[in-house]
Amino acid sequence: MPELPEVEALALDLSGRLHDRAITRIDLAAFSALKTFDPPLQALHGTLVDGVTRHGKFLDIEASGLHLVLHLARMGWVRWRDEVPRLPAKPNSKSTLAARVVLDDGTGLDITEFGTKKSLAIYVVRDPADVEGIARLGPDPLVEEFTIEVLGEILQREGRKQIKGVLRHQGTIAGIGNAYSDELLHAARMSPFKPANSLTDEELQTLYDAIKGTLGAAVDRSRGLAASELKGEKKSHLAVHARTGEACPVCGDIVREVSFADSSLQYCPTCQTGGKPLADRRMSRLLK
């Protein structure tokens, strides 16, 4: 799933490509992806792109006062095309194409989604806050206003909820998903099951530094990369996420996994849980 660093890099890349370009048309190939009806998608036809920004994991293309907002979900992506087909894209249940944005110079971008479970969402709104998911977002961890005091207040408010779930809940902190919550907890040497309100002052500082450092470094590495390069960049720098059975790059221990119904987490026992493997979430209360 694209998370804060990838969506930030996408916004930077597309901002340069789309600035001052006019949207000729938008072809909708997956009707279920469009979540709004007023304004209609056709209202963007003929508009001039003013800029591209990010809200959490939402991508926001602003054009003549309207906003084309994308949430790429787990399997969505944006593919730049130097030349788009002349004929409009047609609905096709076997295609990965959800929508195509065609620009006035013949270039454009394809909004795609792989897999059978379709969760990608497209919105056309007058204000980004009209998208419920954006309106509910917690603070962005990369802005200056996200201080250690803000993080401390969030964790105390969440009580004994597991730290991993708190970090990836978009209404609590915006932009952190499954992958980067694994990564920053590994950087902080902290169990994913640790209760949110149990951190000492020293642990809070360590976690805060890990959030700023891990996400900031990922954004810096991704800055300037084209959309086609971002997935490889992310994967090549992951320490534990999606690396079950491999050696931890810090200590050499084997990266372990805890599986859930629709996701999993990865961690290093030596770095994060005192050398003790975590049992299944439903059976273990390790490191309370």
UniProtKB/TrEMBL annotation:
Which EC number applies? 3.2.2.23
Q: Say which enzyme class the record assigns.
A: hydrolase
Q: Which SMART domains match?
A: Fapy_DNA_glyco (SM00898), H2TH (SM01232)
The keyword Amino-acid biosynthesis is annotated on this UniProt entry? no
Q: Name one GO biological process term.
A: base-excision repair
Q: Which cofactor does it need?
A: Zn(2+)
- InterPro entries, per database record: FPG_cat, FPG_N, H2TH_FPG, Ribosomal_uS13-like_H2TH, Znf_DNA_glyclase/AP_lyase, Znf_FPG/IleRS
In this protein, which residues make up the domain named FPG-type? 239-273
Q: Where is the Formamidopyrimidine-DNA glycosylase catalytic domain?
A: 2-120
Tell me what reaction this enzyme catalyses: Hydrolysis of DNA containing ring-opened 7-methylguanine residues, releasing 2,6-diamino-4-hydroxy-5-(N-methyl)formamidopyrimidine
Q: Which Pfam families match?
A: Fapy_DNA_glyco (PF01149), H2TH (PF06831), zf-FPG_IleRS (PF06827)
Keywords of this entry: DNA damage, DNA repair, DNA-binding, Glycosidase, Hydrolase, Lyase, Metal-binding, Multifunctional enzyme, Zinc, Zinc-finger
Q: Would the keyword Hydrolase turn up in this protein's UniProt record?
A: yes
Molecular function (GO) terms for this protein are: 8-oxo-7,8-dihydroguanine DNA N-glycosylase activity; damaged DNA binding; DNA-(apurinic or apyrimidinic site) endonuclease activity; lyase activity; zinc ion binding
Task: Name the domain of life.
Answer: Bacteria
Family recorded in the similarity comment: Belongs to the FPG family.
Q: What is this protein called?
A: Formamidopyrimidine-DNA glycosylase
Please give the organism: uncultured Nocardioides sp
| Top-level taxonomy | Bacteria, Bacillati, Actinomycetota, Actinomycetes, Propionibacteriales
